[in-house]
Amino acid sequence: MMPAVAMVSILAVMCAEQERVNADSAIIQTFLTRVNDYVKLRKKALQGLPAPSHSMKRGDLLKEQQRMAERIAVARPEAKQGDICSPEIAAELRRLIGISLNSPGAEKLRASFRKQDKAPTPLKVNAVFPDRLPMPTAPPTLLINLPQLPPEVDYRFVGRALVLRDTTAGSIIDFVPDALPVPQ
Question: What predicted TM-score, i.e. pTM, was given to this entire model?
Answer without folding.
Answer: 0.80
